[in-house]
Amino acid sequence: xxVLICGGAGYVGSHMAKCLSVxxxxxxxxxxxxxxxxxAVKWGDLAxxxxxxxxxxxxxxxxxxxxAVMHFxxxxxxxxxxxxxxxxxxxxxxxxxxxxxxxxxxxxxxxxFSSTAAVYGQPQSPLIDEDHPKLPMSPYGASKLxxxxxxxxxxxxxxxxxxxxxxxxxAGASADGDIGxxxxxxxxxxxxVLRSVLGQGGRLKVFGGDYTTPDGTCVRDYVxxxxxxDAHLRALHYLNGHDGAHAFNLGNGQGFxxxxxxxxxxxxxxxxxxxxxxxxxxxxxxVLVAASAKAKTELGWEPRHSGLDTIxxxxxxxxxxxxx
Length: 324
Ligand code: UFG
Description:
Elements: E1 2-6, H1 11-22, E2 26-31, E3 45-48, H2 54-63, E4 68-71, H3 78-83, H4 85-105, E5 110-116, H5 139-158, E6 161-167, E7 169-171, H6 189-197, E8 204-207, E9 219-220, E10 222-224, H7 225-240, E11 245-250, E12 256-257, H8 258-269, E13 275-278, E14 287-288, H9 293-299, H10 308-320
Parallel strand pairs: 1-2, 1-4, 2-3, 4-5, 5-6, 6-11, 7-10, 8-13, 9-14
Antiparallel strand pairs: 9-12
């Protein structure tokens, strides 16, 4: 297959390009390089374009007949989305509609879409499955949920087959250290813990120690980026035999608190983590843990690299010596 990866210069997208390439598929990356990295595109060609540029999109689709599209391009910071919602809806929703139109014009009928646990909002049960109420608390989560709705409508109107994969906390890096997580600015917990160990960015600030969790800090479900990539590949195969718009949670089903992450980093790196307790960050639910039974049953997916030690070992290798 020849797969177009929108956002393939970004964190999850670049691991996807590697995974598809290793599985013997051809890859083209489309990325505007606003948050992605040219150096992360090591598998397949790079087309530098923005999804808001319909003419550029049409040109890219006219040059190659893609068999499927994987779509990772998005603005994805929860806090930022609250302060600049127009940019989030334009990039995430309008950009995706442009992509879908370009696909339709060339009769490309399969899409795997990067969605998020942020579509659920405040958890109403300890484990979140796909039927959990969807009440996003941020424009970011709302924009992803809107796209999911567009995908359902596109299935009914045009026969588009799609899978929306709702990630919990993507983490870790490629085992051989050639690609990894490189956000500027970095807001995510595991990179920030490692940066504090490396003396970059000052002491880690822990956002809130007064949650109703066993140690008072927030609990999250960390899933290795290579496990996410594997799930996308499985979802693509799934669409060969399934009409319609589908959604799957991707998490490992086990929660770890911020303090547990810090303790694991101390153990794995053998270094102290300089940190201080701070105020809660607005919009953070106390606990977010996925029920991923549907992905396991229907996609045959099993997270293989998502033990917290494995995640942190791979992230540590990357952050100690990042290639970009
Ligand atoms: N945290 C800190 N200090 C930091 C960074 C994070 O204490 O420097 C805490 C956060 O408050 C949170 C936990 O660590 O409790 C994890 O935070 P991340 O920013 O790493 O991840 P989030 O759970 O906030 O966000 C993730 C994805 C989003 C997605 C969201 C779903 O990154 O894309 O889950 O709610 F929208």
